[in-house]
TrEMBL record:
Coiled coil: none annotated. Residues 1-253 form the EAL domain. This is Bifunctional diguanylate cyclase/phosphodiesterase. The chain holds residues 575 to 827 of 844 of the full protein. It comes from Paractinoplanes bogorensis. It comes from the Bacteria.
Length: 253
């Protein structure tokens, strides 16, 4: 298909962009890291949603290259920030299919070495619903990644209908509360209850909690009251290209 060939060309030519969305501490809006998000401007069709081109990559054998492009761009910036004494972490989204690739942890190890980035500066986000579907097969890769020293985050948490007890069994460091609950919590008592429960459970298990999709001051205040430490969302910043992220950062300090 045309789109698969176009994606290949974009990957070959470095035409795939990576945007960065700030993750901040809720108490003082201090920048702690960025989520790296793939963006593709198709020459004829305009912007293609990452959900669509990640699916194309998965079905046409291009997923490992796509993941490598996003990870290396993130590592490159992470290294620059470390050199500037700004120890920001990076987060990269992984498809479950990447976790089924037994070579992936070795690729990560060699890229970390190549870019001179400390493993603890890197978080991989894995969507909860995807992870649940294949947990037995992805666990070995999760353990190998954890043993490398990178951090693992359960993304879109709450949408997978997993038993909360799984959180204790998975080798993860962080949960990201899905934006649907975060956006609803200011007006919907059910969403509020879910957010409160996830925060308290995650804290009991010693996991970092990140709220995604923070769009209002009211939501920010509620999250802070409940003990959530880190947030991400349009209230702070949209995903930005590198130069605009740096401008945003300069304007904050
Ligand atoms: O950035 P945006 O909200 O448009 O992202 C839509 C979805 O695409 C999100 O679920 C996000 O996790 C996913 N996504 C963005 N970049 C990547 C990537 O590099 N790899 C994978 N697997 N998913 C990504
Ligand atoms: O599935 P994942 O959590 O990886 O999706 C990340 C995407 O969520 C980002 O690409 C971004 O486009 C989107 N996003 C980030 N912050 C907000 C927000 O405050 N509101 C909404 N509606 N979407 C957001
Ligand atoms: Mn994510
Ligand atoms: Na989400």
């Amino acid at each position: 298909l045309g789109i698969a060939a176009d994606l290949r060309t974009a990957l070959d030519n470095g035409a795939l962009d990576v945007y960065f969305q700030p993750k901040v501490t809720l108490t003082d809006r201090h920048l702690v890291g960025v989520e790296c998000l793939a963006r593709w401007q198709h020459p004829a069709q305009g912007e293609v949603s990452p959900e669509d081109f990640v699916a194309v990559a998965e079905h046409t054998g291009q997923l490992s290259r796509l993941t490598e492009v996003v990870l290396t761009q993130g590592l490159r910036r992470c290294r620059e920030w470390a050199d500037q004494e700004r120890p920001l972490s990076i987060a990269v989204n992984l498809s479950v299919r990447t976790l089924l690739d037994s070579r992936f942890p070795d690729q990560v190890a060699s890229l970390l070495e190549q870019y001179g980035v400390a493993p603890a500066q890197v978080t991989f986000e894995i969507s909860e619903p995807g992870m649940l579907g294949d947990i037995e097969r992805v666990l070995p890769t999760l353990y190998r990644l954890r043993d490398l020293g990178v951090r693992l985050s359960v993304d879109d948490f709450g949408t997978g209908a997993s038993s909360l007890s799984y959180l204790r069994q998975w080798p993860v460091h962080e949960v990201k509360i899905d934006d649907s609950f975060v956006q609803g919590m200011a007006t919907d008592t059910g969403d509020l209850a879910i957010v409160r429960a996830v925060i308290s459970l995650a804290r009991e298990f010693g996991l970092t909690v990140v709220a995604e999709g923070v769009e209002s001051e009211l939501t920010l205040d509620l999250l802070e009251e409940m003990g959530c430490e880190i947030g991400q969302g349009y209230l702070f910043s949209r995903p930005l290209p590198y130069e605009r992220l740096e401008a945003w950062f300069s304007a904050q300090t």
